[in-house]
């Protein structure tokens, strides 16, 4: 992919062909993104170019080689979009996916009063995508994100700064609730939910480039839900909501686990593929002041 002043149309066609040969879905779309990344322009910027700038050719060649080796495009670009945010990404965290936006949609449907949420806890925060998306919608809320990885917590903090939300977001390295005190109006989590035996069958982009600790949750994929649900009641405000992302087909098991701990399902929402992705729970019994 070297050469001087090559026609941009030819570059896009050849890049897409290489991606298709490597087994990449949507190769034409990814080719445009790679070329934009190499040039350093938005998609609309391609309209004003007839040829690939010479200085962009080595960068495109390197990026294309990485993508054909199945390195995720977002890791090559260094960022991705989620909800209304632009987030930096790294190999220390999962890459935010559009499917996870179902959790934000479910919460907004369940809590439409934008002044009614004041405190949010995000367990397994990763890039901070869920917490920051919630805070972007609920302007009076403050949130805490927790991740086992200090590097992930640092990245989430940087993303809060990038999106002008750092004054309302704090991030900690810790194991679920271990570093947390107090109660929250919202506890939200996209925990690991892949069964250990399914790791080898995941897409190379996920299996080889995203942290296994954020993916695998025991033989049945439910270990993280068990741990969170067992402790969540103590950290959830009396009228709070517990919001989970789940894997395909896990709704029955997670609803049963939550029900056995005193929670009742109040909202379920599918992703754009029609798969149930978000489950929201409240306490099945809210103590009155006289009971407290």
Give me a quick take on this structure.
This protein has 292 residues and is an alpha/beta fold. It is built from 10 helices and 9 strands. Helix content is 35%, strand content 19%.
Principal-axis shape: elongated
Tell me the Rg in angstroms: 21 Å
Approximate strand percentage: 15-25%
CATH class of the largest domain: Alpha Beta
Class from secondary-structure proportions:
alpha/beta
CATH superfamily of the largest domain: Vaccinia Virus protein VP39
Q: Can you tell me the CATH architecture of the largest domain?
A: 3-Layer(aba) Sandwich
Distance between the termini: 70 Å
Count of the separate structural domains: 2
Task: Determine the mean pLDDT.
Answer: 92
Number of distinct helices: 10
Strand order of the biggest β-sheet: 5-4-3-6-7-9-8
* Spans of at least 5 consecutive residues with low confidence: none
Number of strands: 9
Overview of the molecule:
The protein is an alpha/beta fold and 292 residues long. It folds into two domains: 8-69; 78-283, Vaccinia Virus protein VP39 (Rossmann fold, 3-Layer(aba) Sandwich), CATH 3.40.50. Helices cover 35% and strands 19% of the residues. The chain contains ten helices and nine strands. It has helices spanning 8-21, 27-39, 57-68, 73-77, 101-110, 129-137, 150-162, 204-207, 223-235, 251-260; strands spanning 79-82, 85-88, 119-123, 142-147, 169-173, 184-189, 236-245, 263-270, 276-283. The strands form two sheets. A seven-stranded mixed beta sheet has the order 5-4-3-6-7-9-8, with helices on both faces. A two-stranded antiparallel sheet has the order 1-2.
